[in-house]
Amino acid sequence: MSAGAEGLAALRFPHSAAPSPGTAMEVAPGVRWLRMPLPFQLNHINLWLVEDGPGWAIVDTGISNAETKALWERIFATALDGKPITRLLCTHFHPDHMGLAGWLADRLGIELWTTEGEWRHARQAIADRPGTFHDELADFYRRIGFGDVEETIKVGRPQSYRSLVGPVPEHHHRLSDGMELMIGGRSWRVIIGRGHAPEHACLYCAELDLLIAGDQVLPKISPNVSLWPNASDQDPLGSFVASLGKLRAAVPGSAFVLPSHNLPFYGLHARIEQLRALHEARVAEIVIHCRTPRTGAEIVPVLFSRTLDRHQLGFAIGETMAHLARAVAAGGLARHEREDGVWLFETAA
Fold first, then answer.
1. Quick check: helix, strand or coil at residue 272?
2. Is 349 exposed, middle or buried (0-12, 13-18, 19+ CB in 10 A)?
3. 59, 203 in Cβ contact below 8 A?
4. What is the distance of C-alpha 43 from the center of its chain?
5. What is the mean pLDDT of each run of 10 residues along the chain (349 residues)?
6. What are phi and psi of 257, to 5 degrees?
7. Domain ranges in the chain?
8. How far apart are CA 275 and CA 74, in angstroms?
9. What string of DSSP letters covers 51-119?
């Protein structure tokens, strides 16, 4: 969701514009930038081609639809210098990053490289009985304090995971934290981030001083960090902030950062500190508002005062609950349950 620091990327980005869909732009030796459209307010995703010996490795895919497939076909025909695609790497399981993994693997005869956690989440989301997540979400929204649960789901989650994602490959090569992955003649270190996704893979090349950051660090917006029903991580914001510290320690502040949205940028350490401060301020604001017991539904407009569109509402609810969970874990709030099962959050004594 939204955050500040727009000037960080704009002042130091070495290019004037993003590549148009279906074209590629070189941003570093052996690294090319692609951009695919998304049908949301955040209307694009950045993808990457990394020179891999005799061909190119793809990083992330775009969502599964006819338009994105057609743009990939144009890339194959015009942007690869006649070289083949060697493999596919996906930073995490979200639809704009893994939506076409199965199609690309089949179309090109290549294999998927991703973390175990992201592959399993994608496979599970595809395999779940239709309606399973709807039922879990309905109970979750009831506990948050929404009166018309079905309408909230209809407005806040208009598209299912399946509608944006094609088949997920049955097998994958596992990326793990600290792994040194050879792509072409260069070593890329895998750095795992958490909070935005279960086991998000960032890739850092020391030779190029370049970080493919995925959604873990973005220059103009804060990555969405949501608490979802029955999540294994009940404090995703705590995990996210800890991951920022880990990324700061692992990657120099001089690195050129390739994010999945907006423009590539310099100033990684400054951006990490901005994100930390943003979330700390939000948690503190929530603690103040809960001096009188509040439901999660009552806190959503505290964090998101602007009008939210259909795609944003569900993420705003999830992000609000992540901030409430962080405040509880840090001892600033206590959570109680009303007789009707709705959660109440109150500033801790």
1. helix
2. exposed
3. yes
4. 14
5. 37 67 96 96 96 98 98 97 98 98 98 98 86 84 90 71 93 98 97 98 98 97 94 96 98 98 97 98 97 97 83 89 98 96 95
6. -105, 125
7. 7-287
8. 37
9. EETTEEEEE----SSHHHHHHHHHHHHHSSTTPPEEEEE-S-SSHHHHTTHHHHHHHHT--EEEEHHHH
Q: Does domain 7-287 have CATH number 3.60.15.10?
A: yes
How many Å apart are CA 13 and CA 110, to the nearest integer?
33
**For residue 170, how many other CB atoms are within 10 A of its CB?**
10
Q: Is 18 exposed, middle or buried (0-12, 13-18, 19+ CB in 10 A)?
A: middle
Question: How far, in Å, CA of 119 to CA of 168, rounded?
Answer: 8
Closest CA to 110 of 72, 81, 63: 72
Determine phi and psi for 128, rounding to 5 degrees: -55, 140
Give the angle subtended at the CA of 217 by the CAs of 246 and 184, to the nearest 5°.
80
Which residues have a Cβ under 8 Å from the Cβ of 75 and sit 6 or more positions away?
22, 23, 24, 34
CA nearest 259: which of 276, 271, 241, 246? 271
Give the residue carrying structure tokens 């700390």. 280
Q: Angle, nearest 10°, between helix axes 296-303 and 132-144?
A: 90
Q: What is the longest distance spanned by two Cα atoms in the chain?
A: 66
**Residue 24 φ/ψ, nearest 5 degrees:** -130, 145
Hey, how many other C-beta atoms are within 10 angstroms of the C-beta on 26?
13
β-strands 256-259, 333-337: how paired? unpaired
Q: What secondary structure does DSSP assign to 100-117, as a single string?
A: THHHHHHHHT--EEEEHH
Query: Distance (Å, rounded) from C-alpha 116 to C-alpha 132?
Result: 22
Pairing of strands 173-175, 112-115: parallel
pTM: predicted TM-score of the whole model, two decimal places: 0.93
